[in-house]
């Protein structure tokens, strides 16, 4: 039986799952929204949340049916189901046994990689700006951090990162990069890995492919094949983005079996739950759903880009489900102005303080949000350059 997403929620009685704060319904997506709640600001259910790079449509009916079908096994620990998903991913990516490790979202893969390969004497190299979780783990674990600013075109400055990588434990690259949205071509990543293997063979390259499914650029390819040639490459993936499963927390890493073996001692034994395993297993085979979500994202992104460009602002090229817009002044005014009008956009991304990151919602959400963007920006100073 196929059920709609709305019917699924109604069946489970999740209408009461949101929290009541000061008599108002609160809903939060991602740590940006949670930050608002922790600060004491209740977020009304009518707020348009464009701040956490989630898929606003959620998973498809096939995945929801799989979740419902998994209820009978909820009382059991998910050992067999985790092994089955691991085997499916191993076949899907055509890698040897022992090359895949599951995680509670890709965040656990990032943590495991840092715990396995960095230390107080083996630093972490990251771009700036990029997804901050690896840097936060480094701070927690007492690992030195060397951040390398993106270049003038917002691309990762790989020559500078290579120079900082000698003796490092891990070099982190998000591809496509969050928040800039740009990609590194496969040939560039391969050349970097090859050079690093010569100059600092003990350094691991952690390639975060959270937004892999959204990319259209033919120069872009997954780095998973590199794990067959180099022991120092780990690729992380997640079901949180195009598959619409951010709340279910399921991700995985792919690497050489020797490297994965060094990571697994840091993995929680049952970190992925039964419902997430069922959802992920069925999501992998739903290519029709993925293509539909790619199309919807592409259309919303193109529409939103036109809005900002017609207002005279420059929007960075993006191959992901968000845009990075240069407002040519501190972007705080924009974030705060949008929030006052019921639209949440991305947090600050130093050192690029003049940029705002806008996640893609549904087309209806982007149309309503764009009216807010226009009103906030037209009241701003200085006026944008054409």
Number of strands: 14
Distance between the termini: 54 Å
- Count up the helices: 13
Share in β-strands: 15-25%
Q: Structural class per helix/strand content? A: alpha/beta
The succession of helices and strands, N to C, reads HEEHEHHEHEHEHEHEEEHHHEEHEEH
- Indicate the percent of residues in helices: 25-40%
Please tell me the CATH architecture of the largest domain by its name: 3-Layer(aba) Sandwich
For the report, how would you describe the main beta sheet?
Answer: 7 strands, mixed
Q: How are the strands of the biggest sheet laid out side by side? A: 4-10-9-8-7-5-6
Number of domains: 2
CATH class of the largest domain reads Alpha Beta
Q: Could you tell me the mean pLDDT?
A: 90
* CATH topology type of the largest domain: Aspartate Aminotransferase, domain 2
The rounded Rg comes to: 21 Å
Query: What overall geometry do the principal axes of the alpha carbons give?
Result: globular
The CATH homologous superfamily of the largest domain: Type I PLP-dependent aspartate aminotransferase-like (Major domain)
Q: Unreliable stretches, pLDDT < 50, 5 or more residues?
A: 1-43
Please describe what this structure looks like:
The strands form four sheets. The protein has a seven-stranded mixed β-sheet, sandwiched between helices. Strands 11-12-14 form a three-stranded antiparallel β-sheet, with helices on one face. It is globular and about 55 Å long. The protein is 39% helix and 15% strand. It has two domains: 16-59 and 287-378, Aspartate Aminotransferase, domain 1 (Alpha-Beta Complex); 62-284, Type I PLP-dependent aspartate aminotransferase-like (Major domain) (Aspartate Aminotransferase, domain 2, 3-Layer(aba) Sandwich). It has 386 residues and is of the alpha/beta class. The protein has 13 helices and 14 strands. The chain has helices at 5-12, 30-38, 61-69, 79-92, 105-117, 133-141, 158-165, 186-199, 257-263, 274-284, 287-310, 332-340, 363-378, and strands spanning 19-21, 24-26, 48-50, 100-103, 124-128, 145-149, 170-174, 204-208, 233-238, 251-255, 314-315, 322-326, 343-345, 355-359. Strand 5 (124-128), helix 6 and strand 6 form a beta-alpha-beta unit.
């Amino acid at each position: 039986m196929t059920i709609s997403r709305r019917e699924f929620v109604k069946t489970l009685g999740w209408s009461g799952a949101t929290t009541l704060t000061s008599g108002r319904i609160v809903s939060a997506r991602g740590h940006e929204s949670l930050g608002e709640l922790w600060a004491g600001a209740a977020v009304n259910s009518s707020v348009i949340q464009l701040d956490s790079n989630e898929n606003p449509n959620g998973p498809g009916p096939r995945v929801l049916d799989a979740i419902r079908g998994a209820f009978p096994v909820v009382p059991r620990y998910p050992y067999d189901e985790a092994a089955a998903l691991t085997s499916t991913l191993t076949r899907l990516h055509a890698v040897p046994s022992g090359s895949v490790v599951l995680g509670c979202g890709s965040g656990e893969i990032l943590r495991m990689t840092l715990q396995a390969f960095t230390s107080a004497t083996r630093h972490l190299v990251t771009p700036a700006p990029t997804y901050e979780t690896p840097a936060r783990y480094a701070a927690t674990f007492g690992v030195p951090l060397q951040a390398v600013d993106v270049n003038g075109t917002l691309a990762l400055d790989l020559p500078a990162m290579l120079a900082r990588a000698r003796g490092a434990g891990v070099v982190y690259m998000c591809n496509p990069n969050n928040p800039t949205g740009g990609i590194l071509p496969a040939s560039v990543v391969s050349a970097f890995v090859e050079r690093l293997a010569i100059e600092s063979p003990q350094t691991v390259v952690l390639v975060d492919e959270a937004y892999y499914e959204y990319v259209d650029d033919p120069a872009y390819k997954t780095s998973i094949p590199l794990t067959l040639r180099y022991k120092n490459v780990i690729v992380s993936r997640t079901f949180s983005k195009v598959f619409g499963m951010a709340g279910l927390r399921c991700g995985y890493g792919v690497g050489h079996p020797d490297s994965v073996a060094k990571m697994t001692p840091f993995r929680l034994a049952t970190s992925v739950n039964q419902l997430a395993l069922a959802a992920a297993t069925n999501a992998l085979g739903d290519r029709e759903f993925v293509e539909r979500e790619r199309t919807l994202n592409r259309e919303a992104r193109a529409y939103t880009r036109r809005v900002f460009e017609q207002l005279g602002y420059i929007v960075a090229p993006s191959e992901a489900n968000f845009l990075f817009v240069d407002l040519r002044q501190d972007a705080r005014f924009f974030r705060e102005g949008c929030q006052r009008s019921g639209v949440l956009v991305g947090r600050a991304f130093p050192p690029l303080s003049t940029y705002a990151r806008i996640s893609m919602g549904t087309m209806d959400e982007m149309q309503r949000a764009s009216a807010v963007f226009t009103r906030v920006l037209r009241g701003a100073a200085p006026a944008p350059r054409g």
